[in-house]
Design brief:
The complex is a heterodimer of chains A (276) and B (305). By secondary structure, chain A is of the alpha/beta class. Chain A is built from eight helices and eleven strands. The longest helix of chain A is centred in the C-terminal third of the chain and has 20 residues. Chain A starts with 6 loop residues before the first strand and ends with a helix. Chain B has 305 residues and is an alpha/beta fold. Chain B is built from eight helices and eleven strands. Chain B has a nine-stranded mixed beta sheet with strand order 1-3-6-7-2-8-11-9-10, sandwiched between helices. In chain B, strands 4-5 form a two-stranded antiparallel sheet. Classes of the chains: A alpha/beta (276), B alpha/beta (305). At the A-B interface, helix 2, strand 9, strand 10 and helix 4 of A face strand 4 and strand 5 of B.
């Protein structure tokens, strides 16, 4: 019996030290997924490889989400014009090391990527009206220096608390570091009451960074439209419920909320933003 | 998956003691106290990445400095009576969100432990864990011993404070040892190594508590030090057990009288007579666990910090 192949490359692109951007499908506010999709669609990326699900995901059935059956996917897309690879994937459930090695085998060994980014959200207790910041965790000091001109916060000190596990993005950075690939885990703090919704401001902040650093020429105006639409819905909620507006104003001045108030804010905001 | 050797000491007929986390971390605490007391030296480790997800990331000034994994480490110590090998696993390689190891990874890890044992000529392995028993927390924990070959039964009968499965009423010599502390016995048998699992008794109503039960670890430790001829100071273990007993006594005082009365019936239970007339039935046991569970839910996790 021979071992099953872990990945499949359908059409190996010829690229020169491309940038590899990793978007995990499971992410609060769907930031990582939305940003990956935005890049894929707006840069005309085409699928060229995938990591196969067997061994990394439970295949005992399918999950149904939003009325639709889902199946885990881990796909590589390329924009030859922009010398860019996007890897969009569900978070593997087992054999993480082998999965990350496969990701790097396709992205780094076969396609030559030497710079890798991951995208993700952090929960913030700031109001949605505050500017979104971008935080980076790099795996090499050189990468930190390279990101300095892009207004990225890069001075985090952190130890995983007992009972918690490091993120898969941190794990990927560590594995990539062993192979000489420089990485930056990019994190955008998102207001806690938007984590179940989309946050176009956060998406724009992330994509603005990629646009600036890698000259992608992305048109980010559709995201401005989404911000305006979200603002309208929130304004409607404030009009209907001055108490919710008062809670947001308290967050704007850095005043913490009681858990009951925080739950009320998150619940009503979710309800308001769901409305078409 | 590979084993990395840090040192290859010259060991004469070593005995190995091995443990992984489990209920009350009973075996792990006993084995670790031997390791520490003897100042055992590291000799090898199993590379973690095919078995475990990382346990900790260290980030300083925005730079990821390190990722740590649960360790699976081999130690050795040459003592006047015998040479010892100690295996200490910080986590069981569980798959699919299970608590205990099972499946291909567990089997692979068990085989790696045996591989190291055989490389150094080890012919006897002890594992240790917990025996969930209907006993009271004021009672001394007995040690249940399970060998992987019938030829060891007579020897085990001579161990102090130890019972065999057939000594426990109602079991008829049957049972199950979950996870790697049990699986290693099977893999050792398959590869021709004698092995014994020593399980310290933990009261049935404490099995789900997220803290250790050093009283049972002490019982396991006493058996292990006897059998291995290890001369070590067990004051630290005594201290831990006493401290735990005081904490449990304080917790016990807060229980409603009805639950206390039920638990007190367990005071009459001994390892060898767990189904005596005065002792509790399976139905009683279920009710006690339900009552205790309700009590702590009502208390709102008062002991949590």
């Amino acid at each position: 019996m021979t071992a099953s192949p872990v990945f499949r490359v359908y059409d190996r692109p010829i690229l020169k030290k491309p940038v590899l951007i990793v978007g995990w499908i499971e992410d609060a506010s769907r930031l990582s997924l939305r940003s990956a999709d935005f890049l894929i669609h707006n840069l005309g990326c085409t699928e060229f490889a995938e990591i196969l699900p067997e061994g990394f995901f439970p295949l005992a059935g399918v999950n149904v989400e939003d009325d639709v059956a889902n199946f885990p996917e881990s796909k590589f897309y390329v924009s030859k014009e922009h010398n860019l690879i996007v890897f969009k994937s569900n978070v593997p459930r087992t054999d993480w090391h082998q999965f990350l090695k496969a990701l790097l085998e396709v992205g780094h060994e076969k396609c030559g990527a030497e710079e890798l980014y991951t995208m993700g959200t952090m929960i913030s207790y700031a109001a949605h009206t505050m500017p979104r910041v971008l935080i980076s965790i790099v795996n090499h000091p050189d990468m930190k220096a390279e990101l300095e001109p892009y207004n990225v916060m890069s001075n985090t000190d952190f130890d995983t608390p007992a009972g918690q596990k490091p993120t898969l993005s941190s794990y990927l950075s560590w594995v990539a570091g062993q192979e000489g690939v420089k990485t930056a885990n990019l994190w955008v703090p998102i207001p806690f009451y938007l984590v179940t919704q989309e946050d176009p401001r956060a998406c724009k902040r992330l994509l603005y960074f990629f646009n600036s650093r890698h000259n992608l020429g992305l048109d980010l105006r559709p995201l401005d439209d989404e911000v305006a639409e979200q603002n309208n819905k929130i304004a409607g909620l404030f009009k209907k419920s001055p108490q919710i507006e008062a809670l947001v104003r308290r967050l704007e001045v850095g005043e913490p909320l009681e858990s009951e108030d925080a739950e009320k804010l998150a619940g009503e905001m979710a309800e308001a933003l769901r409305k078409k | 998956m590979s084993i990395k050797y840090v040192r290859e000491p010259d060991l004469a007929d070593p005995v190995m003691i091995a443990s992984w986390p489990g209920i009350g971390n009973i075996g792990l605490i006993a084995v670790d106290s031997i390791r520490r007391s003897l100042n055992a030296e590291e000799m090898a480790y199993i590379e973690p990445w095919d078995f475990f997800y990382p346990s900790r990331a260290t980030i300083r000034d925005g730079v990821l400095l390190n990722i740590q994994f649960p360790a699976s480490t081999f130690y050795f110590k040459k003592t006047p009576r015998r040479d010892l090998m100690i295996f200490f696993g910080e986590e069981q390689p569980a798959e699919g969100g299970r608590v205990y190891a099972e499946g291909s990874k567990a089997y692979a890890m068990a085989n790696m432990v045996i591989e190291v044992a055989q490389r150094f000529g080890c012919k006897r392995i002890y594992t240790s864990g917990a025996a969930v028993a209907p006993i009271h927390h004021t009672a001394r924990s007995s040690v249940w011993a399970v060998p992987n070959t019938p030829g060891l039964l007579d020897e085990l009968k001579s161990y102090r404070n130890t019972v065999l499965m057939s000594d426990i009423e109602g079991r008829g010599g049957q049972g199950n040892i979950t996870g790697l502390n049990g699986l290693l016995l099977g893999v050792a048998r398959r590869r021709g190594i004698e092995a014994v699992c020593l399980m310290g008794e933990i009261p049935v109503y404490l099995q789900g508590f997220p803290f250790p039960y050093p009283k049972a670890s002490k019982s396991v430790l006493e058996v292990l030090t006897d059998v291995l001829g290890v001369d070590m100071d067990i004051q630290a273990m005594n201290h831990l057990a006493e401290q735990n007993e005081r904490e449990l006594a304080a917790l016990y005082e807060r229980l409603p009288q009805e639950i206390k009365d039920q638990l007190d019936r367990l005071k009459q239970v001994t390892a060898a007579a767990q189904e005596s007339q005065d002792a509790i039935t399976e139905e009683d046991k279920k009710k006690i666990l339900e009552d205790i569970d309700k009590f702590f839910k009502k208390e709102g996790g008062g002991e949590q910090h």
